[in-house]
Amino acid sequence: MELIKPREDCGVVGIFAPGQPVAHLAYLGLYALQHRGQESAGLAVGNRRSVTVVKEMGLVAQALDERVLDALDGDISIGHTRYSTTGSSSWRASQPFYRDVGDLEFALAHNGNLVNTTELAREAGMLPGTIVSDTDLVAELLAGELTASVLSPGREMTEALSSVLPRLEGGFSMVAVDAGHLYAMRDPRGFWPLCLGRLDSGGWVVASESPALDVIGAHFQREIAPGEMVVIDDSGVSSHRPFTGPEPDPSLCVFEFVYFSRPDTVLLGANVHRARQNMGEALARQAPVDADMVMPVPESGIPAAEGFARASGIPYRDGLVKNRYIGRTFIAPTPEMRSRAVRMKLNPIRANIEGRRLVVVDDSIVRGTTTRAMVRMLYDTGATEVHLRISSPPYRWPCFYGMDTGSLSELLAANLELGEMAEYLGVRSVAFLERDRLLGSIRNRGGGFCTACLDGRYPVAVPVEMREGDRGRTGELTVGAGGPL
Ligand code: SF4
Hints:
It is a single chain. This protein has 485 residues and is α+β, with helices and mostly antiparallel strands. It folds into two domains: 7-248, Glutamine Phosphoribosylpyrophosphate, subunit 1, domain 1, CATH 3.60.20.10; 269-451, Rossmann fold (3-Layer(aba) Sandwich), CATH 3.40.50.2020. It has 18 helices and 25 strands. The strands form seven sheets. It has a seven-stranded antiparallel sheet with strand order 4-3-5-2-11-10-12. Strand 13 and strand 14 (236-240) form a beta hairpin. The site of iron/sulfur cluster has 11 residues, from helix 17.
């Protein structure tokens, strides 16, 4: 299946709520985070004596049902919904990962991607080819620490995490559960989001995005800080800083604001929907165009199109209807069927399009094949001009921290200049929002952003073996802000 949009690799949730149906609450949280991964879903529940893990391939509603949830009795739960960027798309690689070390059982779930897995595998004594995913590797490192632990009962997991976390390089937001504790941690740069909420009953919730808190009925308290490890148990919430040395610049993935996060998410004090509208306004000021109508590519382009229309004064109208039920399972087995696939997803509203000059707004382009077919469809429907406006800069660099850009050789912006792109897509003009205008549109309170896939400046150095496959396709990668690659 064609990669239409960049894909992130997971959503995580954690619940500490003695006396509450924690598996059901985690299920609700996963449902709210379904957009972050649709390959598999899983839960782990701690009941003071042991940890039970249930995971299955498919969407949350397919992987987990009432019968399974009812059987998961406990006080603490973590959940995970997966899209694979490392490891295979298989049950074995689905999360949470479970380990049993003597009297201690734990489960771990991870959003992100580690860049020093070769080194970590060596430390863990794992042979190449036996590692299911980087999360499996972290679970193995933790198990190794716990096996060697001579510390007092109840402190082992915190100590093991404090030893392992500083050895991990890359992007990670993780949750873990043992029989009596919930753990939540973020890498020192905070590539991927993680927030903390409180239930009226006194319980606690952590989740990749704030709407999961809303669905569970928890009140947003704060974001887990980059480099922070939070431990939640009967005594409450304690904050730890396992990472030593100077604090690096925060580097939240900027694509959380462009595309990944739900529009109702609040991140760094900024509402994602509002930020996307701001991007559209900034785009209208940066790349104005004389046209009759502004229309979004539904649904991801809607807020930016609203902003573009507001700033330009050009009327906003819907031009395409999206089939919301097509999902990722739509299979187009023949070229003829594939050519119809775009029409299956998007169908034009002739009454709005015919005889009009259109500004079509979207948030990003990956390969451009779908965009190209859509543009042709708009002309076939009677549009007299099509101008494409994209509310993020072109991405030309691979992401190593947890986003799947697809093959770089197929990335439109990695291979074509602006004029060539317009010609390939068949549009009268195309423009991408500039990086500084994108950052200015977010209006966040504190924090900073990773923009490596836009400018090649990598906050965490990426080892040679990891980037080797991409060098041939993209030319030399530049030296990152965080040091030479
Ligand atoms: S490289 Fe791009 S997709 Fe990856 S974390 Fe940085 S901004 Fe996000």
